[in-house]
């Protein structure tokens, strides 16, 4: 990768991080102090941050001559990008700025985790040199992003229960039924994309390793995550598990997603391990 | 007899129930997680060393050393298949009924009211009703009259969504069946060798000849690609095909798939006896050669270093380029280690009358050969599952009716009713937005 590209990407990444951080603080002020203006500025900063983040990923991709999705740093920064994208879509779709208050800390934590990883651009091992890489990882990014949004919405739901109603909350925080529905929509999106991730991963694995499913820890935990969200959807239907129970389930589901991403790569050896 | 029928009915009800499915899914998830934490396929001794004798006993007894192939895990997967099948069979009539009902325009105002989930709005005339329906996303609006002669309009979309969960269940069922049958019926072989070698593929009638094998290195010494040029011949028919196989691009011939799986180093071991050539064979690193006229004497090529450097920690390879080949060997006589050392190119070791030299190091290729006739079924299952999820999540059944109010000369406007059970509050809000005037 040309040094210039790496330097530009580094610069953009740092500015992105700062913008996400500023957006997080402003969103926090908006929610805690119940003031309108910080949210407007935070929304702009988050959007600009997202644009720069996109530029950083594109520049890294151009410099590396491949999609920037192959090591812990690249996947972490892509994960944060995916979460930010889904968050912005949901904020726009449901006119729901408070989501930013709960999503930006997660985005910041993930991009902070990315900042702690090695940013070296390494050549790919033969197994990773596949057209399926783009499909597999990009669907995972959207899936994880959607689960992240369902986590944020569920946290709002759980907090909303403990807060006294006032004009600010009435205006900015949707009623519980709507929060529950938005969380459900995010889980639906996540589960659909996670299914794409698993299927494209299986097709790729069949070509690269001669077997489409080998109970590698990452595969296994993706399946566990898929099952957890499938159970979530069934419980909603069968027991009318909505509202609080569903919110708690969505939070547990996202913890599982985080383990699938960070925990498995770090602690469990396998073909997805970066150790 | 009655008792048996009752028991069968009860069992069927349990097996086809969602509760049963949820229970199975939870146990499967926990089992999968357990299998990922606990090293799989280890021996009792390894578990005893890592944990304790008692724990190791439990691990082996419960099949936790091979969770994904243990009888209880397979039984749960089988029960899940049964549950999916039963659930889908039970639901066909109900879904068909709803699917057909949604396709027909309600012919009485009462029928429309009954199904409308209380989402109603009053409007001026049919023109406004149609406008609202268009705003709600209904492009095709049917026109008709109710049984009592009133005009009505009807819009429906997302009928296919009624099949979403059903299709998804079918997909998961096909996936599990494809995977399970594949595990049972698959054929899997490995062969390894050097260019020029012809290798028998297990107990089949196929012979693989390795025509060439290349390892493409980048400037930084990392591997870009491994490529094997192979010819496969069916000795029973004499038919043969030639193709290349590389990582991520397997060769498919005779219904078998040939994967470039891995590689390693091999070298020639030449044995001279009293100055005369006794034998000269290629041996892969980790493999051994038995001396032809003295089978008790074995020479093992323990490891190979293409760019040998001797360090305090022992021999290492500075790069993967063949700059200074080094051969770590061990000599065994009657099963006892006679000696070990590292030789470089041209060096030799003498054991009584025998002189051993190593030469011509080269990469060997290890090919994995598979035939799994059920892979397409599993793939189909995966795709059907995705299709089911798409239908279930993004094509929810949504209906809108508009019926003329009153009858005869007392006509005084229209009532619009909407329904989207899966849309919940989001559809209700949209309905309100449109019918209260700010939905465009």
List keywords for this structure.
heterodimer, A: mainly alpha, 80% helix, flat, B: 440 residues, alpha+beta, TATA-Binding Protein, 6-stranded antiparallel sheet, 5-stranded antiparallel sheet, 21 strands
Give a brief description.
The complex is a heterodimer of chains A (275) and B (440). In chain A, helix 5 (132-162) packs across helix 9 and helix 8 packs antiparallel against helix 9 (243-267).
Shape of chain A: flat
Structural class of chain B: alpha+beta
Helix content of chain B: 25-40%
H and E order of chain A: HHHHHHHHH
Distance between the termini of chain A: 23 Å
Q: Can you describe what's shown?
A:
The complex is a heterodimer of chains A (275) and B (440). The two termini of chain A are 23 Å apart. In chain A, 80% of the residues lie in helices and 0% in strands. The model of chain A has no long low-confidence stretch (mean pLDDT 90). Chain A contains nine helices and no strands. In chain A, helix 1 packs antiparallel against helix 2 and helix 4 packs across helix 5. The longest helix of chain A is centred in the last third of the chain and has 34 residues. Chain A has one domain. Chain A has 275 residues and is mainly α. Chain A is flat, with a radius of gyration of 19 Å. Chain B has four domains: 75 residues, no CATH class; 92 residues, TATA-Binding Protein, CATH 3.30.310; 43 residues; 185 residues, no CATH class. By secondary structure, chain B is of the alpha+beta class. In chain B, the strands form five sheets. In chain B, strands 4, 9, 10, 11, 18 and 19 form a six-stranded antiparallel beta sheet that branches. In chain B, strands 1-21-20-3-2 form a five-stranded antiparallel beta sheet. The model of chain B has no long low-confidence stretch (mean pLDDT 91). The radius of gyration of chain B is 36 Å and the shape is elongated. Classes of the chains: A mainly alpha (275), B alpha+beta (440). The interface between A and B is large, with 49 and 47 residues.
């Amino acid at each position: 990768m040309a040094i210039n590209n790496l330097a530009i990407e580094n610069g953009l990444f740092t500015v992105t991080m700062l913008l996400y951080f500023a957006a997080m603080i402003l969103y926090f002020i908006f929610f805690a102090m119940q003031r309108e203006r910080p949210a407007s500025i935070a929304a702009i900063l988050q959007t600009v941050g997202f644009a720069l983040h996109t530029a950083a990923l594109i520049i890294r991709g151009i410099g590396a001559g491949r999609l920037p999705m192959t090591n812990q740093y690249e996947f972490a920064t892509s994960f944060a990008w995916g979460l930010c994208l889904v968050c912005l879509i949901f904020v726009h779709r449901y006119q729901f700025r408070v989501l930013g208050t709960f999503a930006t800390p997660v985005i910041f934590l993930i991009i902070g985790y990315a900042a702690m990883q090695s940013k070296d651009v390494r050549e790919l091992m033969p197994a990773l040199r596949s057209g399926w890489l783009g499909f597999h990882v990009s669907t995972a990014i959207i899936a994880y992003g959607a689960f992240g949004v369902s986590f944020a919405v569920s946290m709002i739901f759980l907090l909303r229960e403990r807060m006294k109603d006032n004009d600010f909350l009435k205006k900015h925080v949707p009623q519980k039924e709507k929060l529950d529905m938005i969380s459900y929509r995010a889980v639906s999106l996540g589960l659909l994309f996670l299914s794409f991730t698993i299927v494209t991963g299986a097709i790729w694995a069949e070509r690269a390793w001669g077997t489409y499913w080998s109970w590698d820890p990452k595969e296994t935990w993706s399946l566990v995550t898929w099952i957890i969200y499938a159970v979530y959807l069934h419980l909603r239907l069968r027991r009318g598990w909505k509202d609080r129970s569903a919110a708690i389930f969505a939070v547990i589901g996202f913890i599982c997603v985080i383990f699938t991403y960070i925990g498995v790569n770090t602690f469990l050896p396998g073909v997805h391990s970066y150790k | 007899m009655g008792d048996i029928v009752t028991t069968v009915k009860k069992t069927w009800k349990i097996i086809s129930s969602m509760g049963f499915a949820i229970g199975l899914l939870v146990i499967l998830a926990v089992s999968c997680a357990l299998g990922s934490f606990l090293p799989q396929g280890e021996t009792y001794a390894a578990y005893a060393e890592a944990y304790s004798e008692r724990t190791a006993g439990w691990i082996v007894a419960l099949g936790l050393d091979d969770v994904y192939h243990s009888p209880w895990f397979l039984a749960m997967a089988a029960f899940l298949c049964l549950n999916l099948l039963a659930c889908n069979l039970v639901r066909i009539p109900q879904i068909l009924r709803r699917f057909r009902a949604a396709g027909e325009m309600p012919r009485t105002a009462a029928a429309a009211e009954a199904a409308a989930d209380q989402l109603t709005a009053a409007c001026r005339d049919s023109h406004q009703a149609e406008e609202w329906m268009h705003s709600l996303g209904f492009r095709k609006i049917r026109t008709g009259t109710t049984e009592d002669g009133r005009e009505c309009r009807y819009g429906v979309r997302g009928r296919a969504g009624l099949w979403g969960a059903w299709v998804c269940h079918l997909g998961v069922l096909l996936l599990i069946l494809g995977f399970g049958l594949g595990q049972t019926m698959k054929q899997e072989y490995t062969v390894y060798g050097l260019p020029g070698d012809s290798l028998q593929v297990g107990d089949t009638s196929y012979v693989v000849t390795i025509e060439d094998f290349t390892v493409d290195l980048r400037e930084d010494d990392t591997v870009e690609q491994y490529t094997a040029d192979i010819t496969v011949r069916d000795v029973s028919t004499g038919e043969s095909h030639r193709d290349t196989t590389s990582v991520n691009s397997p060769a498919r011939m005779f219904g078998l798939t040939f994967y470039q799986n891995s590689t390693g180093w091999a070298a020639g071991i030449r044995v001279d006896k009293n100055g005369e050539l006794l034998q000269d064979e290629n041996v892969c690193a980790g493999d051994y050669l038995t001396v032809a006229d003295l089978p008790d004497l074995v020479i093992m090529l323990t490891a190979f270093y293409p760019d040998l450097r001797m360090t305090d920690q022992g021999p290492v390879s500075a790069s993967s380029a063949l700059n200074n080949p080094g051969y770590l060997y061990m000599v065994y006589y009657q099963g006892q280690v006679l000696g070990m050392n590292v030789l470089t190119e041209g060096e030799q070791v003498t054991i009584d009358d025998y002189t051993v030299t190593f030469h011509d190091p080269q990469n060997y290729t290890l090919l994995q050969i598979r035939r799994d006739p059920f892979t397409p079924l599993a793939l189909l299952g995966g795709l059907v599952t995705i299709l089911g999820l798409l239908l279930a999540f993004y094509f929810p059944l949504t209906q809108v009716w508009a019926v003329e109010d009153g009858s005869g000369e007392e006509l005084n406007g229209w009532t619009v009713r909407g329904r989207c059970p899966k849309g919940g509050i989001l559809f209700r809000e949209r309905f309100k937005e449109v019918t209260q005037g700010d939905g465009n």
